[in-house]
């Protein structure tokens, strides 16, 4: 389930990119553009996200919690599911030859809700493939991957209305990104946890690939009786960035963003079919991230729509049902790990948060109240300036992320880095009350400054961002604020 209402108090910005010859990773380092339609490697249509993303990394010697996910409360005969269908999603490839299409707001909305920009607006995608079919359920999910730009576009309640496409909400992420929201670009998909429905999906091309397990973490939803409420325990944890608005009604202990795994001792030979054993093997190696809530199904694992995946192809199978119950009873939340291994088999650090600074907002001419020609652009995650003969200075005011796991700690060393093009530059001022506690000065592209996060003893902390354009060329600027 997904809450559609915009949340202007959140910090909403993130991964910087260009749509031309360069792509940028979450730390702002330029990378050669990848082949987003490749059938091997990572960060493409067929294997989403980077090798070291939370989805493609796996824990070694994980420590598991003790809490057991609950059986159905209102429908005792309902069994766990591994399937596509009304609440899953189709994944569609958009190519350079596909036409542009505009998606409008649903009836009663002034446009499509865009949590990243904080506004309702019509969304025009440069390439829209033929044959897009939204899921038939109330969430109406559809994910479009543009292999020319490397952007995964997610829609909530996508429909054709009076001959044109409409949607309630739009979010995006990069196929060569982390696959989870950042503290500053928190909504990167239409699931309640802020991720794209395609993330963790069992894809069509994986089902009969001959492997004994799926080579990424799976996506799972749990019912409210297993989910935590945000009061007695967190409603979401890293790497999730959001929770449903009704989380306070939950009565369990598992937060969104939890990685659920089967213990190494789980005996998959007791499972009656190869299809279910492949799922269980994956849950032993990678696990599944809890990305959404469902209604009274002990757990649901998502399969790509159109995959023709069926755990019981010949009809009701009591042995499969028994196997699903064994999995439910054994699944536990990962609470720690000895180390992490990425998709290439390399030992890596545990996946860590990125920037916590938003570029979103109104950028006025510095020293005045007039809106400037530069503006926040969601796909660039930056203030973007048009070509101008003179350097333009624009200012915005922002807040630090309210995401629970991303709040700075007093005395912690912070690093402010400039990611800019066309000769633009950016400056950060951190104020306590009316006093300036830190001023980075203007930073050119790929330069940085560090400082200690101040206390609030001298007053509330506020941030001022000042960006200056390049001259005689289009330009852009973004600031990345992270722990050093």
Mean pLDDT across residues = 90
In total, the number of domains comes to 2
Strand content: 25-35%
> How many strand units?
32
Report the total helices: 3
List descriptors.
single chain, 484 residues, mainly beta, Jelly Rolls, 2 domains, five-stranded antiparallel β-sheet, 3 helices, disordered N terminus, Atrophin-1 multi-domain protein, signal
Report on this model:
There is one protein chain. By secondary structure, this protein is mainly beta. It folds into two domains: 34-346, no CATH class; 364-483, Sandwich (Jelly Rolls), CATH 2.60.120. The chain is built from three helices and 32 strands. The strands form eight sheets. It has a seven-stranded mixed sheet, with helices on one face. Strands 23-26-31-28-29 form a five-stranded antiparallel sheet, with no helix packed on it. A hairpin with a 2-residue loop joins strand 28 (425-432) and strand 29. The longest helix has 13 residues, at 318-330. The protein is globular.
């Amino acid at each position: 389930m997904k809450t559609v209402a915009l949340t202007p108090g959140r910090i909403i910005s993130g991964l910087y990119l260009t749509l031309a010859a360069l792509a940028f990773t979450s730390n702002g380092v330029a990378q050669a553009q990848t082949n987003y339609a490749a059938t091997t490697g990572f960060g493409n249509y067929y294997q989403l996200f980077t090798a070291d993303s939370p989805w493609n990394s796996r824990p070694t010697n994980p420590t598991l919690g003790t809490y057991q996910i609950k059986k159905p409360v209102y429908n005792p005969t309902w069994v766990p599911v591994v399937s596509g269908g009304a609440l899953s999603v189709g994944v569609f490839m958009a190519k350079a030859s596909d036409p542009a299409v505009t998606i409008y707001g649903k009836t009663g909305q002034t446009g499509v809700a865009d949590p990243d920009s904080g506004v309702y607006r019509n969304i025009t995608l440069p390439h829209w493939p033929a044959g897009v079919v939204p899921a038939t359920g109330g969430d109406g999910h559809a994910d479009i991957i543009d292999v020319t730009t490397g952007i995964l576009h997610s829609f909530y309640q996508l429909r054709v209305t009076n001959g044109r496409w409409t949607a309630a909400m739009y979010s995006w992420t990069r196929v060569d990104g982390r696959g989870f929201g950042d503290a500053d670009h928190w909504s990167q998909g239409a699931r309640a946890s802020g991720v794209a429905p395609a993330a963790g999906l069992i894809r069509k091309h994986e089902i009969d690939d001959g492997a004994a397990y799926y080579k990424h973490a799976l996506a799972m939803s749990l019912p409210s009786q297993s989910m935590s409420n945000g009061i007695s325990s967190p409603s979401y944890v890293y790497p999730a960035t959001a929770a449903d608005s009704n989380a306070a009604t939950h009565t369990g202990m598992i937060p969104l963003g939890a990685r659920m795994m089967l213990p190494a001792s789980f005996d998959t030979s007791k499972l009656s079919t190869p299809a279910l054993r492949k799922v269980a093997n994956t849950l032993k190696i990678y696990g599944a991230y809890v990305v959404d809530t469902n209604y009274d199904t002990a757990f649901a694992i998502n399969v790509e729509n159109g995959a023709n995946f069926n755990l019981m192809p010949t009809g009701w199978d009591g042995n499969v049902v028994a196997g699903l119950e064994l999995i439910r009873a054994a699944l536990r939340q990962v609470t720690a790990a000895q180390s992490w291994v990425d998709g290439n088999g390399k030992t890596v650090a545990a996946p860590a948060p990125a920037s916590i600074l938003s570029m979103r907002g109104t950028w006025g001419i510095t020293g005045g109240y007039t809106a400037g020609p530069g503006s926040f652009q969601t796909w660039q995650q930056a203030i973007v300036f048009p070509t101008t003969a003179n350097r333009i200075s624009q200012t915005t005011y922002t807040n630090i992320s309210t995401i629970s796991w991303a709040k700075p700690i007093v005395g912690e060393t912070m690093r402010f880095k400039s990611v800019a093009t066309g000769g633009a530059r950016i400056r950060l001022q951190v104020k306590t009350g009316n006093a300036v506690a830190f001023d980075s000065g203007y930073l050119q592209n790929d330069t940085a400054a560090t400082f200690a996060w101040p206390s609030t003893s001298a007053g509330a902390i506020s941030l001022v961002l000042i960006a200056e354009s390049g001259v005689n060329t289009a330009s852009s600027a973004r600031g990345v604020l992270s722990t050093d």
